[in-house]
């Protein structure tokens, strides 16, 4: 899940941001670009000529963290070459969760880094950059002042990039799953006020955004009045904003009001990412997940009771310390019972400072590989079956962008599947009925039901 923020405008100074990790980092990268634009920084899609490079990093697994150090090595070479050729000197900044978790180590391991800024402090980037012209080695982590960050950013003044957008409503985590670094990198649970969220959503809708995905490490723990259900209702009333999604949810915070909202609100899309991690109660307990396999399955049943066609997605970790074959079999059994539309699977990665890193019974890499392959095979089969089940149906598709082939557009179904169809560019940003004709593991192919899209379909 790494990507770049799209290019815009003619640059006076060039800014390149590389984003790793979760959607919240994607949101943060966009906001960093917004904060830096008054200083004359325009986004560029390569680091080659950049005056400022920001790596927005992820600490979740060891691999994600190591990628940052190898990227920094490449950037240093690029900068040295450029300086040797008499070019301008680029500023190298590290932002995000690695910056928060090991800022000092970054400075020590890679002296080319000019500044380090944690996820709650990037509104201070302009000031830091001004200072870095004078001296290197600023480290700023503004320990978890999320309220200060959002106050400083303000709810409006965002540049929308397309017809869908992420919108952070909640940050941080109080759950302390024993494998996870997020409570340490993002701090405790904190929610923005409904007023600022609504203002930001209206600003986005005015720029043509038709779908928002509300973000939070525990988005359904949203603590504004009435919880996430009330927030969704409020946003669903904004003209032009026809689709609302949210991610990521914790089973513990899936309350009745939110479940009911899925049955009542057309704008709330029938897709739910609800990580379970394991199907073994013994392992779930060691993970400190606060749900059992049984309670999770019952929860899914209640959700499907409210919205029968709900597409369920999940996260799984294989090879957590102490996981035996029988525990892994329990995970496969849970997957068979739930029947997932899609899922994300990970091999357990030992993260320094987390309780699980010190647990006995660390699992062999080869065993993790084998379990991951078996789990993926089962989930793949379910994803293909879920997608194949859409063939022959007419789905409302929000077209987002041109496809790879001329004349083709790519959009999303209510269930978050990518849908390819031959369609004119003017349908970008419109929700249009598409007859699904083919399916694969990750996407659907379809055809417009009619050339006359004046009677635009409202989302089902
Ligand atoms: N707040 C969300 C997402 C957390 S990170 C949630 O609770 O669901 C996204 C996923 O990364 C987690 O759901 C988990 O499956 C995975 N993950 C987190 N720490 C990990 C680790 N140490 N090793 C392997 N996977 C991990
Ligand atoms: Fe990590 Fe667990 Fe919090 Fe999710 S709920 S961010 S997995 S500690
Ligand atoms: Fe990674 Fe931080 Fe997100 S650790 S998954 S970027 S919250």
How would you concisely characterize the structure shown here?
It is built from 13 helices and 20 strands. The chain has helices at 23-36, 62-84, 97-109, 125-132, 146-153, 182-185, 194-206, 227-236, 256-264, 281-287, 293-306, 325-338, 365-388; strands at residues 3-4, 13-19, 41-43, 52-57, 91-96, 115-117, 138-140, 164-168, 170-171, 190-191, 211-215, 243-247, 271-273, 311-318, 342-347, 394-402, 408-412, 418-422, 431-439, 443-448.
Question: How would you describe this protein?
Answer:
The protein has 460 residues and is an alpha/beta fold. The protein is 35% helix and 22% strand. The protein folds into 4 domains: 13-148, Methylthiotransferase, N-terminal domain (Rossmann fold), CATH 3.40.50.12160; 154-269, 2-Layer Sandwich (Transcription Regulator spoIIAA), CATH 3.30.750.210; 270-388, Transcription Regulator spoIIAA (2-Layer Sandwich), CATH 3.30.750.200; 394-448, Beta Barrel (OB fold (Dihydrolipoamide Acetyltransferase, E2P)). α8 packs parallel to α9 (256-264) and α12 packs parallel to α13. The longest helix has 24 residues, at 365-388. It binds S-adenosyl-L-homocysteine, iron/sulfur cluster (SF4) and FE3-S4 cluster.
What labels would you give this structure?
460 residues; alpha/beta; Rossmann fold; Transcription Regulator spoIIAA; 4 domains; seven-stranded mixed beta sheet; 13 helices; 20 strands; 35% helix; 22% strand; binds S-adenosyl-L-homocysteine; binds iron/sulfur cluster; binds FE3-S4 cluster
């Amino acid at each position: 899940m790494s990507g770049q923020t799209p290019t815009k405008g003619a640059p006076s100074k060039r800014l390149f941001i590389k984003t790793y990790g979760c959607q919240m980092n994607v949101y943060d990268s966009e906001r960093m670009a917004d904060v830096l634009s008054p200083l004359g920084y325009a986004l560029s899609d390569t680091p080659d000529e950049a005056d400022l490079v920001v790596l927005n990093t992820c600490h979740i697994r060891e691999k994600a963290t190591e990628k940052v150090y190898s990227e920094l090595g490449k950037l240093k070479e690029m900068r040295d070459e450029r300086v040797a050729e008499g070019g301008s000197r680029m500023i190298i900044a590290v932002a995000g969760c690695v910056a928060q978790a090991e800022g000092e180590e970054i400075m020590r391991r890679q002296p080319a880094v000019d500044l380090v800024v944690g996820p709650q402090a990037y509104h201070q980037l302009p000031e830091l950059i001004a200072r870095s012209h004078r001296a290197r080695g600023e480290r700023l982590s503004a320990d978890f002042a999320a309220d200060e960050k959002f106050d400083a950013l303000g709810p409006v003044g965002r540049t929308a990039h397309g017809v869908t957008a992420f919108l952070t409503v909640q940050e941080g985590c109080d759950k302390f799953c024993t494998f996870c670094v997020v409570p340490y990198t993002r701090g405790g649970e904190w929610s923005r006020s409904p007023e600022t969220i609504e203002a930001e959503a209206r600003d986005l809708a005015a720029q043509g955004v038709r779908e928002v995905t509300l973000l939070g490490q525990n988005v359904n723990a949203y603590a504004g009045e009435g919880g996430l259900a009330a927030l969704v209702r409020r946003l669903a009333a904004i003209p032009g904003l026809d689709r609302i999604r949210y991610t990521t949810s914790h089973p513990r915070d899936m309350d009745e009001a939110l479940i009911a909202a899925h049955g009542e609100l057309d704008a709330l899309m029938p897709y739910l990412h609800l990580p379970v991690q394991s199907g073994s109660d013994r392992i779930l307990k060691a993970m400190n997940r606060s749900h059992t396999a049984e309670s999770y399955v019952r929860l899914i049943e209640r959700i499907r009771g409210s919205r029968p066609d709900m597409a369920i997605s999940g996260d799984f970790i294989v090879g957590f310390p102490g996981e035996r074959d029988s525990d892994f079999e329990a995970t496969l059994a849970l997957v068979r019972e739930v029947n997932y539309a899609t899922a994300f699977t990970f091999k357990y990665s030992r993260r320094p400072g987390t309780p699980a890193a010190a647990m006995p019974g660390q699992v062999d890499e080869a065993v993790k590989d084998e379990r991951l392959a078996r789990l993926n095979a089962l989930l793949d089969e379910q994803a293909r079956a879920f997608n194949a089940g859409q063939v022959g149906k007419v789905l409302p598709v929000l077209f987002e962008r041109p496809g790879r082939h001329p004349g083709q557009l790519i959009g999303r179904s209510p269930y978050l599947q990518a849908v390819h169809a031959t369609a004119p560019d003017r349908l970008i940003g419109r929700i249009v009925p598409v007859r699904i004709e083919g399916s694969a593991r990750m996407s659907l192919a379809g055809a417009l039901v009619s050339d006359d899209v004046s009677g635009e379909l409202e989302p089902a």
